[in-house]
Amino acid sequence: MKILKKYSWELTLFILLIIEILGFGVINPRLLDINVLLNSTSDFIYIGMLALPLTLIIVSGGMDISFGSVVGLCAITLGVLFKLEFPLIIAIFVTFLVGIICGVINASLIIYTQVNPLVITLGTMYLFGGGALLLSGFAGATGYEGIGGFPDVLLDFANQKIWIIPTPIIYFLIITFLFWLLMHRTRIGRTTFLIGQNIRVSKYSAMPINQTLFTIYPLIGLVSAFVAILLVSYFGSARSDLGSSLLMPALTAVVLGGANIYGGSGSVIGTAVASLLIGYLQQGLQMIGISNEISSALSGALLIIVLIGKSFNSNKSIFTDFIKKKLI
To answer: How many angstroms separate the most distant Cα atoms in the chain?
Structure first.
């Protein structure tokens, strides 16, 4: 019973996910085909991968809206290095290094300037995005096709299956498990929660605040680099705009998954399930003939509704506590 109570929201999301798939399946039975269902995840599973490290950042009371630009920067970095005939293993290593450096830049600016993380990462979003465009121009890859001609060993990375399960789903499950361990079984995870609940108390308690921020922000940079490699593999080309559409769905997944936008609470499992819920919502709408623009608008509306609902519940709880105190 304790486990059910602890994960009640996650179970609710899972039930909604099943209802959603069955509902779309009634309209278009193809969605109930297990192969179609699994293969369609390759179009959106990257949202979930990015939402997992973003969960830690939001739980800490921070924010990062630059990761979409980091994905584009890492993707075009991989393409440019490959075009310059660097060995693929070196190009991949540098791509991961670029992602981590972007995270370190964000963490450094947030810690040492004490400026709101939303403002900092808004600036770095344009900084990293501009860097990606400069690299694209340098490589002559400003068009839609980008840089192609990658070897099969890279192209197979996101386009293989283990039995009937596409490899991106396997990667997503592994990343989910690792972030669950980090958030709930390590000191970094516990500190992340405490920072989000009350950063002033955390400072007076000698919590390793800077060390924690220098861990979680580079982590989203690391995952962004991994997603960039997957997207290059999946599409067969490296472009600077590969991460441009990932921000809002990932942020929605984190909030829908149970994270408090002001910090202090959140759930990796909830984020993972919410990512699937949002992804299959978009896929289901497209499969019944709804345009991408409308499905994107619905994702934004879902984020607003969840935020309003959480704010209402929070205010209701404060009001209830106030009434109880008065009655006592």
So the answer is: 75
What pLDDT is stored for residue 193 in this prediction? 93
Single-letter residue type at 119: V
Q: How far apart are alpha carbons 43 and 275 in whole angstroms? A: 12
Q: What is the spatial distance between Cα 113 and Cα 85, in angstroms, rounded to a whole number? A: 39
Q: Alpha helices of the chain — where are they, by DSSP H? A: 2-6, 8-27, 34-39, 45-59, 67-83, 88-113, 117-139, 152-155, 167-185, 187-197, 199-204, 209-235, 247-256, 268-287, 292-327
Alpha carbon distance 256, 48 (integer Å): 12
Strands 165-166 and 161-162: antiparallel
For residue range 54-87, list pLDDT tens digits in order.
999 999 999 999 999 999 999 999 999 998 889 9
